Amino acid sequence: MSLRLPIASWLAVAVAWFGAVTAQVVFACQTAPPPQKNLTDVRTSLVSVPADPFGVVYALHEDVAFVALDDNLGVLDTTAFTPSLLHQIPLPVKEFGSGAAGIALTNDGRHVLVTLNTAAAIVDAAKAAAGSVDVVVGALNGTAGNSAIEITITQDNEYAFVSQEYGTNRTGYRGDIEVFQLHKPTANGSVAGTYIGELTLGDAVVGTALSPNGRYLYATSEVAVIINGTQQGALTVIDVETLKTNPSQAILSNAIAGCAPVRVIVSSDGKVLWVTARQSNKLLAFNASKLLSDPNDALLAAVEVGTWPVGLIFAKHESRILTADSNRQNYTNATAGLSVVDVQAALRGENAVLGSIPTGFFPREFAVSPNGSTILVTDYYSQQVQAVDVATIP
Ligand SMILES: *[C@@H]1O[C@H](CO)[C@@H](O)[C@H](O)[C@H]1NC(C)=O
Ligand SMILES: *[C@@H]1O[C@H](CO)[C@@H](O)[C@H](O)[C@H]1NC(C)=O
Ligand SMILES: *[C@@H]1O[C@H](CO)[C@@H](O)[C@H](O)[C@H]1NC(C)=O
Ligand SMILES: *[C@@H]1O[C@H](CO)[C@@H](O)[C@H](O)[C@H]1NC(C)=O
Ligand SMILES: *[C@@H]1O[C@H](CO)[C@@H](O)[C@H](O)[C@H]1NC(C)=O
Ligand SMILES: *[C@@H]1O[C@H](CO)[C@@H](O)[C@H](O)[C@H]1NC(C)=O
Ligand SMILES: *[C@@H]1O[C@H](CO)[C@@H](O)[C@H](O)[C@H]1NC(C)=O
Ligand SMILES: *[C@@H]1O[C@H](CO)[C@@H](O)[C@H](O)[C@H]1NC(C)=O
Ligand SMILES: *[C@@H]1O[C@H](CO)[C@@H](O)[C@H](O)[C@H]1NC(C)=O
To answer: Is the shortest distance between the CB of 381 and ligand 9 below 6 Å?
Structure first.
């Protein structure tokens, strides 16, 4: 899972990939974020799980959520505010190895796709929720990496895009996006996929998100270039129609996105992208149309959040963003938590952090319930899933 070349040998190819770097805002890699107000009045509750929880997603209704638990897919009962673990569905780890990571629900709610090294297991959502056996109905098995993290599914459920963090020897160990065509379920419920190919990006490719109109896939690479001695990652805009047929030709533009950008989300109007630049302790906002027309000038805002932000999610009708400030290195001088960011204040360039919600160790990924009232966050090192009552967020 962690085959990596030294940054120096990787850079020769990276610079060629990224293209010329002109004047940019460069964000340093090691910053010490200021202490934040502790939002202890926000109501939260925890459930313990038997493994480090990674990705989490709700079913189409409020009652059930799915969480990646290493060898298993956890099914959470979310009818009460405090979730409880209903079932654990064994994943095909004999074939693909342990380490379930990213998770996504098809837009019809029928299937949960969970990434597993070279692959993504396809699980029948209703049967998993009911606790049936034999609920793994297929797998997507790619050839461009053994470190699959996020998975994104097109609105029509016909394609899936998987980020392979470190790629393979074929990609020079740069990360990539694998492209799969999803077939319709067969009469017995099995689902297959065809591997189309991959698009190689920078070092450590993780975060992906589709634009609401489905035309663009956005992806982050942790390292793309070194500017004046500082590593900077990239936010890449990818043309989805090209990605489906000719992946290697699908890049539309690249922008510098701070030190180690790792996740990206898009506003529902498609106009603003928000990226966590993990080692810069920043939440960055980008103008989506400028990313295409003038990527060097697309940065709209930079908000200093907590230590090493990873996941991020909108709350309260997109008036707030929560960042999962992971403190992944367990610095004794820092704490993990969820920064609460006022979106409009951030875009005006004003102080935008309203405070931090306490969490367990290494909060990583989020899910929001379909009616918006509860947000789940996986506390990876604490082996807990934490529920946050959105109505109590300032
Ligand atoms: C690199 O540093 C020099 C000297 O401080 C500065 O003039 C230049 O703008 C910097 N380049 C970038 C891309 O930030
Ligand atoms: C905490 O310590 C780390 C590692 O020594 C350092 O990089 C970081 O800047 C420090 N953070 C704060 C808030 O002082
Ligand atoms: C915030 O509050 C929580 C819960 O009371 C506490 O465990 C934590 O240490 C506090 N954090 C800071 C930075 O004061
Ligand atoms: C997945 O694909 C790889 C590469 O083609 C192959 O070696 C491996 O056997 C496949 N695994 C399964 C379980 O199909
Ligand atoms: C990549 O690694 C595989 C498996 O070890 C090997 O079969 C293949 O020849 C290598 N390809 C290149 C281009 O080095
Ligand atoms: C289900 O159908 C597919 C395609 O017709 C077939 O390949 C597969 O073996 C079947 N699976 C089972 C469990 O019968
Ligand atoms: C994005 O840039 C375009 C110009 O390319 C401008 O019209 C638009 O208002 C900007 N959007 C935001 C949210 O700043
Ligand atoms: C959302 O769903 C939860 C769980 O069913 C329920 O308790 C809550 O009242 C709902 N909230 C809204 C705003 O409908
Ligand atoms: C951080 O601390 C937690 C809780 O003590 C522990 O489970 C985890 O392994 C630690 N991680 C690292 C990278 O030190």
So the answer is: yes
- Would you say the CB of residue 358 lies under 6 angstroms from ligand 3? yes
The amino acid present at 34, given as its one-letter code, is P
Mean pLDDT of 45-74: 97
Question: What 3-state DSSP class applies to 295?
Answer: helix
The region of weakest confidence among 91-95, 119-123, 313-317, 328-332 is 328-332
One-letter amino acid at 49 equals V
Where does residue 316 rank: exposed (0-12), middle (13-18), buried (19+ CB within 10 A)? middle
Angle (CA) 14-3-363 rounded to 5° is 90
Average pLDDT over residues 52-73: 97
Q: Is the shortest distance between the CB of 228 and ligand 1 below 6 Å?
A: yes
Q: Concatenated DSSP letters for 159-203? A: EEEEEESS--GGGTT--EEEEEEEPPP-TTS---EEEEEEEE-SE
Cα 328 to averaged position of ligand 1 atoms, centre (Å): 30
Ligand nearest to the CA of 183: 6
What confidence score (pLDDT) does residue 21 get?
65
Ligand 6 closest atom vs CA 189: 1
Could you tell which of 36, 39, 40 is best to mutate to test the pocket of ligand 3, judged by most ligand atoms within 8 Å of the CB?
A: 40
Cβ burial of 355 (10 Å; 0-12, 13-18, 19+) is middle
CB 197 within 8 Å of CB 253: no
- Give the span between the Cα atoms of 36 and 284, in whole angstroms: 18
Residue 22: the pLDDT is 62
Distance, CA of 10 to CA of 202 (rounded, Å): 9
Mean pLDDT of all residues belonging to the chain: 93
Work out which ligand 7 atom sits closest to the CA atom of 294. Answer: 5
Q: Is the pTM of this model over 0.85?
A: yes
Binding site membership of 147 for ligand 4 (Cβ less than 6 Å): no
